[in-house]
Structures
1.
Amino acid sequence: AVMDTFVNGVDLPAPQLNGIYGIDKVGNTVYLCVGGGFYFTVLDVTNPAVIAALGGLDITTIIPALTPRPFEAIVDGIYAYVNMGAGGVTDGLRILDISNPAAITLQGSLIGGGAPNFLDDALGMGALFYVAPTVQTDVATGVT
């Protein structure tokens, strides 16, 4: 049997708070979707005993009127495709330039269907990106 050993952790400072909803790892860099603080965080895990924060982005600075939560990220090269959702948010997918983790910038977005059809899941495959909307259905009546 293989046993995992806890090496270290990292405390996320405010405004990141808590609630890691999604994670992607490329090499020695980890990308976190921190839904509890509406934050996208980049960590260097080269030395697991000394995890270093490289930067991040407070999602509320790019969507000030809404408070969508970043649920998951798919990193490809210098871009992070961050799936967003919360109570019918219509900007479901955010494309972030992460080439400089200390200065992450918004590059684009994909509009979701709005309540109740915000983007719920995503999958990147090569040049294609698949998204799945949430469709709420009353199982008693079959009405969406």
2.
Amino acid sequence: YINLHHRRRRCIWVVFLLIGGIVAFCFLEVISGSDEGKRRNPLHLTSLNHVSLLCRSIGESMNFYQNVLGFFPIRRPESLNFEGAWLFGHGIGIHLLRALEREKLPKKNEINPKDNHISFQCESMGAVEKKLEEMEIDYVRSKVEEGEIQVDQLFFHDPDGFMIEICNCDSLPIVPLVGGMVRSCSRVKLHQLVQPQPQTQINQVVHP
């Protein structure tokens, strides 16, 4: 009976030690994970909120972002006592501000995919291209090839010359340059990410 009692006590102590070890390990993991998160996201950012654009005409720009890109107007704070408009769509906002010195705004030049731009993912590149042709919007067609992966891109201007890109960029995997963690986009299988990838090739076609 005494030996059985001692065995039970030893078992209880072993269980307590195991539980304590697990708790300590989890605590250290939380601390280290928190430190790693701070290094990767020092400003604790969560998402892109909006893009603010100067424009020559609020009405013309609103028409473009509503009828071409599918944004919808939303209410602006009444404290903003200058001419402008807010729109929302696709998870981000577009804030339009009428330029006070419109003659100083950059003029619309030729479409250059290497210029500053904002990019939108789409469901069908063919449908987008057909719609741009119907609306008689000039665009440039471009293609990026990475191994067996192909990304199609369409570039065009808003009324003030700001570049817009429509693409199926979700086909391209996201591979961090630092760290062992590898993420894949929704349409790419993980095994595609670990294969050696050749140099990216870019082809460009201009549509008048």
3.
Amino acid sequence: MTAKGILVYWRSLVVVLTPLVLLPLPLMHPDDSAEGERMAPEARIARAAYGVLLLAVFWVTEVVPLPVTSMLPVVLFPVLGVLSTEDVCVAYLKETNMMFIGGLIVAIAVEHCHLHKRIALRVMMVIGASPRRLMLGFMIPTMFLSMWISNTATTAMMVPIVSAVLDELKAQEMQNNERRPSVISKATSRHDSGTFDQETRRKSLARVEMDKLPRPSRESVAYYLGVAYAANIGGTGTLIGTATNLTFKGLYDGDFPLLHGLNFANWMVFNVPLMLVNAVVAWVWLQVLYMGLFRKGGNKYKQSPEQLQAVEAVIGAKYRELGPMTFHEGSVLFLFVSVVLLWFFRAPEFIPGWGRLVSKEVKIKDASAAVLVVFLLFVLPANLDFLRPRGPRKATPALLNWKIVHEKLPWGLVLLIGGGFAMSAAARKSGLSELIGRQLVRLQDSMPPEGRSVTILVLMCTATTFLTEVSSNTAIANIVLPVLARMASAMRVHPLYFMMPATLCCSYAFMLPVATPPNAIVMAASNMRSGDMIKAGLGMNFLCLATLFIMFPTFGTWLYGLDVFPEAAAHVGPIIAAHVNSSVILS
């Protein structure tokens, strides 16, 4: 078989060879304990390292679907003697994962009644239709909606609107040059909101004859990239914005249970300002790169009065398609606002939260508020037909039904987050976490004391940003964050100082279509060149890193009190194998 033929089966080769290549780890430290005795610390650590490295390779290479790899801890760690099956399974449905599921179901309810589309179109109508304002009109609702619902769903909803507007601009330009009639109705019908979502997803998975489609103009590239950037950036604004944020919360709470935990309010206090700064930076960057901002000739991107009217007509027509706001939309909006307020005011710190008022003995967390609102979504009616004098002919449907949730909820992400929690628990209980912390002290000793933590912050965040370009951001978070937790503990640096910036960097993936679903969707819908996305995305990566490196060591350190090392963070999770010889494996 030729080398080319072998490469066809590279996934199978990785699946078979990786366990064999890593096999010396447990074989070099066999379990010599008698029956009924506790396994030797060296053997337990070696076996945990085998499982962790195997999961890391499978996650990064994606040789099998990520959710399938995420279920491997249920087999690996019990068979290796690191954790019992029961302990592994418990890690898959922690409070953080329940909050994630609840938030996703609320987001599905918003999508189901098209409330997100009404919000987006209304914002665009208010902002205006000039080229620079139009980009803001695309980016602001995308960013806001991505704070609460899936980045993928937000992008898939915005792309047909962008396409319809750009088609009308092109038609108006042709009309001005060739006196052709307007095609507002044609553009509007062709990008009907009811069919485009499926079409976009189909294109993002298989590009059918993409090379035969015309390349977009520089202005069009800027609009499409603006939507993708806004979706990625918007996900950093809230804890439920992306799965990586909740992965971080779960790992942080599990590794440092005695520290003051993160909640919805104290996450937003720092990350919403950072999100807004990054959104402005993205807008300016795309304007400079593609629309001549601050350069001669930038005025050529101004639109004629006819083009402005055409854009406003397209947006207005799509808004009118939604009709007047329904009772269904109003009820979902009320519940959506309610769950956000419940999350924010559970423990806002500047005033006593409702969680403390409800129960002083039992700690109430954000998952409780999410599940309460989810329950109401399945109970409250979607219309008021039951109040008619003659009564309804059939039962009034609820605001949401389980069939829709079953179809739209990304169960794979739930397993991916749970797999990360299980891997972290195995590393803690085996003593692998303690060993990694001891080894990282060597890295600390090899660097000058001045600016040591800032240097490591810059290096780790930069590496994480570019790793997420080629692998799942949640998988990278599962691998990187536990290491940073041990590093912070070993260096006596507040864990948030390393872990939160790295979490945010998992969302700074702007260069490649495979990096995030929003990137893939706009690439498929626009047929832009890969070079356009790489060129703009590389600059955007460094710009977001720059804003993070400026704001977090200053504003973030002051806000979270990171200049003082809490003694509760001196050990990661339960202290196990404290006297393990650090030269056992990683010397």
4.
Amino acid sequence: MMLPIGDEVRRMSTPVLTYVLLSCNVLIFAYSMLRGLETIINNYGFRPKYLFTASRLETLLTSMFVHGGPAHLVGNMLFLYIFGRSVEDKLGPLRYLLLYLFSGVVGNIVHAASACLLPEPLVARGLYTPLVGASGAISGVVGAYTVFYPRMRVKTLVILYYVVVLRIPAHLYVLAWFAYQLLIGLISLGLPLSVAPWAHVGGFAAGAAAALAIRRWTTS
């Protein structure tokens, strides 16, 4: 396991929007626990069938703010905190928010497409199972971070048979992370996994592409 716990970027502004997103996700999760997590997931999660029937498309957005459990929430918020602050500092709050939402929507769409590639007995399950979590959006933030800060070192807690802290160049850290997501995604095409790796892959690609476009536009 490799957990990011810091980076070397010297930020020039306070990442207010990142803190707002962190707070919103935590508060919504607390509300979900009070109201009934399963009910909230069923009401606001994104089911791939919605995309193909053009119904309840608002769940492409609402699903990003619902999480399936404490570990799901904490893992996502850790990545958002470590990578989001620097991306917000680079883009400013408005472009950062647009990139975040765009990546999340694309991640959900890619996840929906992947559900159609499951073995036929599992297609119905894939189309009707609600997807929740900010993973696609945050993967987009990670993609943007890689574009803007490829050589910055990410302070990483590596947990194997022992625990060690390493400083890994961002492009190498993200390459390993992306390769893992892609591997799990390929495996998931034949198995009913409880994770949504294609949402991660799609979100990452969307965020990286958006960051490249922004960088090209601002430097031309």
